[in-house]
# Entry
Amino acid sequence: MVEHVTENHGVGGSIPPLGTIAGRSQSGGLARTAIARGDERPNTIFDLSTPALLLDRKRLQRNAERMREKVRTLGVTLRPHVKTAKSIDVHRVISAGADMPITVSTLAEARHFFAHGVTDILYAVGIAPVKLPEVAALIRAGCKLRIILDTIEAAEAVRSFISAEGVRFEALIEIDSDGHRAGVAPGDPLLIDIGRRLGDSLAGVMTHAGASYDCRTRDEFEAMAEQERALTVEAAERLRAAGLPCPIVSVGSTPTLHYARDLAGVTEARAGVYVFGDLVQAELGTCSVDDIAIGVLSSVIGHNPQHRRVLIDAGFLALSRDRGTADVPVDWGYGAVCDPVTGAVIEDVTVSSTNQEHGIITSRSGAIDFGRFPIGSQVRILPNHACATAAAHDRYFVTDGGEDVVDVWERVNGW
Amino acid sequence: MVEHVTENHGVGGSIPPLGTIAGRSQSGGLARTAIARGDERPNTIFDLSTPALLLDRKRLQRNAERMREKVRTLGVTLRPHVKTAKSIDVHRVISAGADMPITVSTLAEARHFFAHGVTDILYAVGIAPVKLPEVAALIRAGCKLRIILDTIEAAEAVRSFISAEGVRFEALIEIDSDGHRAGVAPGDPLLIDIGRRLGDSLAGVMTHAGASYDCRTRDEFEAMAEQERALTVEAAERLRAAGLPCPIVSVGSTPTLHYARDLAGVTEARAGVYVFGDLVQAELGTCSVDDIAIGVLSSVIGHNPQHRRVLIDAGFLALSRDRGTADVPVDWGYGAVCDPVTGAVIEDVTVSSTNQEHGIITSRSGAIDFGRFPIGSQVRILPNHACATAAAHDRYFVTDGGEDVVDVWERVNGW
# Structure
């Protein structure tokens, strides 16, 4: 793929310059290369105004297929978390066109996916009572939307709402499997108390072992995956022992699902970021850098020889402020710098700092070859955290790994 | 204001609980309190689904008036940077209805403000050649849009484009006044070279002393403001001495403008974040915490007594990943926690960590009073960096400092 694309560019030499718009302008082709956003379908990524979010569909397909196979092996249902992609078009690739349940992080996602035919939806953020009318509206429209909670107060708010509104809700109790964020400990009497208050609305238990992001070795990941499974299954068994129903036992994070060896007692697994991968995931070993399916196309807008900096027009609004790789072995700053078409990483350089609409590329070695980054040329920046970077954009410009833009897919941001 | 609002809430005691939706639900009022986004105008902030971006119009007016007065004293034109608010409605307050020029960070902002009647616009990010057709489209439509650049290559791209397209461009040369990011040093022969290549298109010089954010004492701020002024004026004089026109001499950042004592030789000053203020600005002394005009309304969704955490439904997508206060004397984590109506800071607690849609409130002392944060109640989170936090939202819910929502103002995000 790399060689094919390099040929397309018609550039030679062992270190070809990046795809250049500036070069094109000299042949008189510039006037047609930039479009006002949303006006028309671009032909290639070089028709795009920058910054712009690129999505490599082939990498997405590969990542999606790998996870489907993994979950098939584990014998559970995959309920992908669409908070990463927030796009029905991406979901169609993830699900390979099948009828697949989803996890959402916002009710805006729930409305978007339900409007596009996805009916089995888990809203996996502890319910705020103020949102119950929005949940009810979706349920009344036919959406099988389930909520989660982990407090007596939320269970009572749900019970009061059901009583007042006459709508049927289903809720999962969130279990704390790692001390990382939310949830009830499986052995806490609160679990049974919440379950009893939910009564008919109790549909099961769920957890998210976010502490998996702190693991560094395979043994640690496998142990965390087993802990996530075991504690959640324990909670389910305690509820059942108390005479309460617990049909759903839901676990998951991209790292624990990637490293899980057995999910006995679990009914469904959730993961989100695996669809795109990112630099943090690559450091955690759940994907390789070559699997990362999204990147921010950006133009080189300045050179600063004195400070050995290349300036690009992707700042923290296009890349996000996420510094996730500050906490993993290799720190990529605000992102890895790549060839715009092939996505091949340019060694030694990173986006080391950002302002709102500026990114500053520097090198780890201190030297920088400005000839590699002509003014007006493009780079692709791989994200630290795909969920954060994608959320900065309202659409994906889809490629099949080359320079052609084969589709434009919209995202549903906000709440 | 605080007492008035507390009375409106009808809650007593020395530490009133925050405004509670959960409490309302018990009185049967919950069903009407949450609305689907964009459906109708909310009456009060308690009608809003969370998270939601609040804007206190009175604070905005105060901040805007203070800066207009400061710039009047300095005898220059104010060209506010609309990258912070990205809203024509906010600009109407900033400008007090006058015809005021603006600075933009994206061409999406330029299109939005031009469509609403603002014609004098500086696009203050080094131009990427790919964007020249978008710039030309605005100029042809009658917008007095100026661009900036600091390289021979960009000047040549502009010259070639003008020659091919027959459209008149004006450009400012970006000056490096602080070694912080971009620009040509005033004494660099490159300055004159770029100026000559621009020819008739040269309209002046501009700088942004972003290094002002590293200042900590009044003396340092004042020295940086003077350095920003002096080096930019020096660049203008060198261009003029070479026989080149330089009518515009543009400087600015919120800190340097706040601390500037004299702007001799400068024609216009730019600043953005002063309109809202934020926790970083409060630490830099350009505003007080009580001046901060925006905050993210969020619901309490969980308690974790074991780890002394309160969970809210504003995570890094609603607050941004900005950790600007990590670099100033007082670190506010991901934001200061306030009463939802008054905006009064609740002492001792901060949003200490975030996930995508979760914020975790902990206390500096280690103790936390869960009774202060009932499940379903709301808090308002003040931002580290107003530009980053506001960019996570597509609209402002405007108040006059009370609980009533008096207007809804849209933002223009993206590019």
